[in-house]
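Quick one, C-alpha cells below. Sequence please?
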C-alpha cells in the first residue's frame, strides 16, 4: 500500500485534503475518483485504499492519466443524500460543501496541468457524487463511471452525449440497484452511449469487479487496443 500511496502527491485545497498522481510523460487526461463512505477521514490515505487494484495500477504504470482523489472528512458527505435514495430530485438537494470544493479543485487542476479530457468515477457515496457533479457541470466531463450509486433521473439528459458506464451488484443491500436500472433505461431512451453491468452474486462491493480488471479503466478513457 505504501508504494501505491507514494506515487500520489499529498496536497490540500483550502481545507480539503486530496491526492493526485501526475504522469511522468505528456498527458492531457484526468480521472477524478470519488471515494465511498469508508474512505472518509483526514489522513489522505483511506481515500486510496479501494483503488489500490489492477485497474488503477495500469493507469499509473502506463502513465495514461492524472488521477485526482479528494477526501471528505469523517462526519461529512460529498452532498447530503441518503444511500437508499437511489432516484432523487436534484432540485431539492444542495450541491454540498465538499462536492463544491471538488468542483473548484477540478477547475484548478485543469488549468494547472492543461487537461483536455476529464472522466469522473466513483463508488457508493462517490458514485452518487460522480453523476451529481457531472449533471451539474456537464461541460467539464467526457465520461462518467457510476458504481453502486444513485441518480437524479430528471437531469440525465444533460449527460446523454457523454460516455457512461453504470455498475451495480445484483444483491446490494445498502444501495438498491433499482436506481442504476432506471438510469440505464432513461439514458437508452435518450440514445446515450451507456453500458449497464449488473454483477452477479455481488453485494455492495461492485467496485472490486471494476478495479480488479487491469484494462477496464484504460478502455474507458482510450479506444480498446
Amino acid at each position: 500500500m505504501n508504494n501505491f500511496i507514494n506515487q500520489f502527491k499529498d496536497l490540500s485545497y483550502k481545507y480539503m485534503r486530496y491526492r493526485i498522481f501526475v504522469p511522468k510523460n505528456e498527458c492531457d487526461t484526468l480521472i477524478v475518483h470519488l471515494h465511498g463512505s469508508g474512505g472518509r477521514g483526514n489522513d489522505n490515505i483511506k481515500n486510496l485504499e479501494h483503488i489500490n487494484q489492477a485497474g488503477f495500477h495500469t493507469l499509473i504504470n502506463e502513465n495514461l492519466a492524472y488521477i485526482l482523489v479528494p477526501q471528505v472528512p469523517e462526519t461529512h458527505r460529498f452532498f447530503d443524500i441518503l444511500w437508499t435514495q437511489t432516484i432523487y430530485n436534484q432540485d431539492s438537494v444542495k450541491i454540498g460543501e465538499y462536492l463544491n470544493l471538488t468542483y473548484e479543485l477540478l477547475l484548478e487542476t485543469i488549468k494547472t496541468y492543461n487537461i483536455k479530457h476529464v472522466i469522473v468515477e466513483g463508488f457508493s457515496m462517490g458514485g452518487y457524487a460522480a453523476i451529481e457533479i457531472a449533471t451539474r457541470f456537464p461541460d467539464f466531463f467526457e465520461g462518467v463511471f457510476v458504481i453502486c450509486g444513485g441518480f437524479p433521473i430528471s437531469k440525465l439528459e444533460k449527460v446523454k452525449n457523454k460516455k457512461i458506464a453504470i455498475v451495480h451488484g445484483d444483491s446490494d443491500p445498502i444501495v438498491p440497484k433499482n436506481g442504476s436500472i432506471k438510469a440505464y433505461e432513461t439514458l437508452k431512451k435518450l440514445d446515450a452511449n451507456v453500458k449497464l453491468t449488473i454483477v452477479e452474486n455481488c453485494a455492495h462491493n461492485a467496485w472490486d469487479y471494476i478495479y480488479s480488471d487491469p484494462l477496464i479503466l484504460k478502455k474507458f478513457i482510450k479506444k480498446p487496443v
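The first strand starts at residue 9 and ends at 13. The two ends are 29 Å apart (CA to CA).
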